[in-house]
Amino acid sequence: METDRSEGNSSGRIKLFTLSTCIWCKKTKALLKEMDIAYDYVDVDMLDSTEKEKALEELKRFNPQCSFPSLVVDSAVCIVGFKETEIREALKS
């Protein structure tokens, strides 16, 4: 599955699963930009069916409900939804 990259300072391996039309996903991306955090992301709704299936399969490992946004930090922590305090805490250097 191909992801896009948003540049910034490294704070571990960060992957964000989003929907292109989701306001909470956009807020999460804006927060990461404000924090100057580098991360990989995928707008799941913009993928073709094969890639979408792969993305959802990967997401289910961290968030079985497949809700958005889902922010995965170092393949260990998954923050579901726009939870600014939790995101800031998980990504502070």
Characterize the largest beta sheet: strand count, sense, and whether it forms a barrel. Answer: 5 strands, mixed
Mean pLDDT, nearest integer?
A: 93
Judged by helices, strands and strand pairing, the structural class is alpha+beta
Number of alpha- plus pi-helical segments: 3
What number of structural domains do the residues give?
1
CATH class: Alpha Beta
Distance N to C terminus: 28 Å
Entry keywords:
5-stranded mixed beta sheet, globular, single chain, alpha+beta, 93 residues, Glutaredoxin
Describe this structure in words.
With 93 residues, this protein is an alpha+beta fold. The protein has a single domain, classed as 3-Layer(aba) Sandwich (Glutaredoxin). Helix content is 37%, strand content 23%. It is built from 3 helices and 5 strands, in the order E-E-H-E-H-E-E-H. Strands 1-3-2-4-5 form a 5-stranded mixed β-sheet, with helices on both faces. The protein is globular. The termini are far apart. The mean pLDDT is 93.
Compact summary:
This protein is of the alpha+beta class and 93 residues long. It has three helices and five strands; from the N terminus they run ββαβαββα. The chain has one domain (4-91): Glutaredoxin (3-Layer(aba) Sandwich).
